[in-house]
Amino acid sequence: MPAPDSQQRIAELTALNGLAQTLNQTLDLREALDAALGQICRLIGLHSAWIFLRGEGDTFLLAARHDLPPALSYPGPAWNAHCTCQDQCAAAQLDKPVTMVRCSRLDAAVGDKWGLTQHASVPLRSGDEVLGILNVATTQWGRIATAELQLLAAIGWLLGTAIARAQLYAHVKVRRVQEQRALLSLSQDLLVSEELEPALQRLVRVGARLLEADACAFVEADELGGRAILRAAFGWNVPPQQPWPLLLDPASPHLWYLPERASMLADAALTPLPALLATQAFHGHLGIAVDLGGAPVGTLMVNSRAPRQFLDDEAQLLGLLANQLAQTLERERLHQEALARQRLEQELDLAREIQASFLPHCCPTLPGYQISAYYRAARQVGGDFYDFIELPPPPGSVPSTPGSPPRRGETVFRAGRLVSPDPQDLSSAQRLGIVIADVTDKGVPAALFMALSRTLLRATAIDGRQPAEVLQRANRLILADSRSGLFVTCFYLTLEVASGHITYANGGHNYPLHYATATGQVQPLRARGIVLGIVPDPQFDQHELTLQPGDVVVLYTDGVTEAMNPARELFGDERLHALLHAHAQRSPHEIINAVLTAVTEFAAGQAQSDDITLVVLKRNPLV
Predict the structure, then answer these.
(1) Are 383 and 436 in contact (CB under 8 A)?
(2) Would the pLDDT of 398 be above 60?
């Protein structure tokens, strides 16, 4: 089955191909435009549209209309009113592929406008000449997505090509009929072509035939390399066994020295021709710049080996081919960007799985305690992490007898989803270290720095050092190994299982919350300390506390308290305090669910802007 991006591209190419067929079904331009407008509206997902054709003296005539509101019924007074988009077109201000314009006709119209106030104006061009305007109406609050804007731009090129084709037919009759058919066939072939190189070769072959020239070529401007490259050629004598594409000019990407037209190319050129071009012995020459978004990307040229002066209508025809070429290059660019995004998504998915492997697969089982954890990155990967570290007992201690039978470990949530592996049984452990940390960035840089920080913290803590010393040593190691300029906040505590005694230190992290069942109060676990990875020898305060039965400790990152609602208000510490106070009698799993529900309701649909991590430790109440 094709990937979603490929399916979307196929659907768009099919619709554009259908539009091209519609424009080719009749030689009557107005009939073709009337039929095409309905397809355009269905393709973009809007209703009302109309097309002006440009006449002499910057006059415009309504050539086609589709599903207009009653206030814009034609004929009617609204069509005699001032027109902003026509003025902008006459002043060369419609210089973008698609421009949003507030409609002066709709402003002045009387009656039901269906809420329409503005339209997307698409200049219909042939080369540098604007032949008309396509207007697709929308409401003041309507939005046209980037993909639809790109489709409108492609439609504008198709309509411009069709209009120029029709006008050209009117001028040169029978000969141009064959040219139009060839151009349409070429347009259809280019639209459905999956490979760029065969499409370019077909275009230059058709160009040489349409202009009855000996040769046609597309020379690409390699701006980065400062050179011109022969990308596609028909009728050229090229060295055999040479890798394609060929270097044409090693110093001038835009062939500035070539004239637009010449009957004797070598004589009209401002400098001696490059060796490969000189060996072709061309006399007649016609060239046109190929532009993408107003920037030249190369030159399309036709040549004859006999002296020949190309005419204006032939230059216009080459301009149509250049438009087709520009569309082909733009579609290929968009396709490559889509493929690159798809590859990046796949790589980020793999990175997410690798990062998830750094987090605990489950929460530990401790006699007399319950532990739950939750982690969800704001992007595919993030910078938060937490860890559980089994520590050696304090010096001089003896193994303690568990005060209550071990419970099954609480559920772990990773990457925002439930994971239920076998719990890590630490029923015989006497001490446990708990880490929560937040790298001050998001995305891939934070994920890489998270892996470094997590490894260094675990390696420093695993031999049982006191929390303040762990943070000091980890800070030195991070400074020694990191050159990224990132830093990490960290809170580390050790728990003596039998007594409930905890010792903790803070490296610039959010203060965890402690609910004391004896008083019913929620207090932050305050400890002074700076973030890790900034200064060489910071000092960290170390504090102690004994958890009583029923007490709860909530460790969290600022993705919780800095969640923002549409009014740009923060969730804040007070709401988290109130939630812990209200739900402290529940299990850690239920406390986490209550916090996540409250944050989600508060955000009211706003996108998550930072990673969210929660670790909840509860000492079982006395039965």
Answers:
(1) no
(2) no
